[in-house]
């Protein structure tokens, strides 16, 4: 007979809940704001429940980054699939995704950026993803002009993240970067 007061186990859902809470914490406070206890409290589980899925904070943060990079990769792929111009397709997708409106302080993108910036041991994961994507799109996105646009996009989200109020010209900057990513006639 099944106990009606006992919760059914759903390890996949609990693991995802933990990752969602880590992303939220990292977006708000960077990885220094992440503790197993804070994650457990936010997720409504015990510290032991977190340790059941992730042996330590380092493994937890690495799993969060893998999740975020995988999500970013899916979004970039979707943008590329809908792009009818080959030249600069990765750069346009990169700009579109990284300068999206959900880039706020508590966003998944913010969590990724804060983690990579504040802990160099994790920046290698980001660099590896970017290098692989640039190799994949070497024929369409190797120009120095496109590299400058990607750097400008990185600078735009970084500055936007530092300022207390959203800038009124942020969307215009994004639009201009995308326009400049098309081949010159």
Automatic annotation (TrEMBL):
Residue spans crossing the bilayer: none
Pfam families from the UniProt entry: TetR_C_28 (PF17937), TetR_N (PF00440)
Transcription regulation is among the record's keywords: no
InterPro entries: DNA-bd_HTH_TetR-type_CS (IPR023772), Homeodomain-like_sf (IPR009057), HTH-type_Tx_Regulator (IPR050624), HTH_TetR (IPR001647), Tet_transcr_reg_TetR-rel_C_sf (IPR036271), TetR_CgmR_C (IPR041479)
Keywords from the named record: DNA-binding
Keyword DNA-binding among record annotations: yes
GO molecular function: DNA binding
Residue spans binding DNA: 35-54
Superkingdom of the organism of origin: Bacteria
Domain HTH tetR-type as annotated: residue spans: 12-72
PANTHER family: ACREF/ENVCD OPERON REPRESSOR-RELATED, ACREF_ENVCD OPERON REPRESSOR-RELATED
UniProt-recorded name of the protein: TetR/AcrR family transcriptional regulator
Origin species: Acinetobacter rongchengensis
């Amino acid at each position: 007979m099944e106990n009606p007061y006992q919760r059914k186990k759903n390890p996949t859902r609990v693991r995802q809940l933990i990752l969602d809470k880590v992303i939220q914490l990292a977006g708000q406070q960077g990885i220094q704001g992440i503790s197993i206890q804070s994650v457990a409290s936010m997720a409504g589980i015990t510290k032991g429940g977190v340790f059941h899925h992730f042996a330590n904070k380092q493994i937890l943060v690495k799993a969060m980054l893998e999740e975020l990079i995988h999500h970013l990769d899916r979004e970039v792929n979707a943008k590329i699939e809908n792009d009818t111009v080959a030249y600069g397709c990765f750069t346009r997708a990169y700009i579109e995704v990284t300068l999206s409106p959900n880039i706020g302080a508590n966003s998944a993108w913010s969590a990724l950026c804060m983690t990579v910036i504040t802990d160099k041991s994790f920046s290698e994961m980001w660099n590896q993803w970017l290098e692989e994507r640039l190799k994949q799109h070497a024929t369409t996105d190797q120009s120095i002009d496109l590299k400058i646009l990607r750097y400008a996009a990185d600078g735009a989200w970084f500055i936007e993240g530092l300022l207390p109020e959203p800038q009124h010209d942020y969307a215009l900057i994004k639009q201009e970067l995308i326009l400049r990513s098309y081949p010159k006639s």
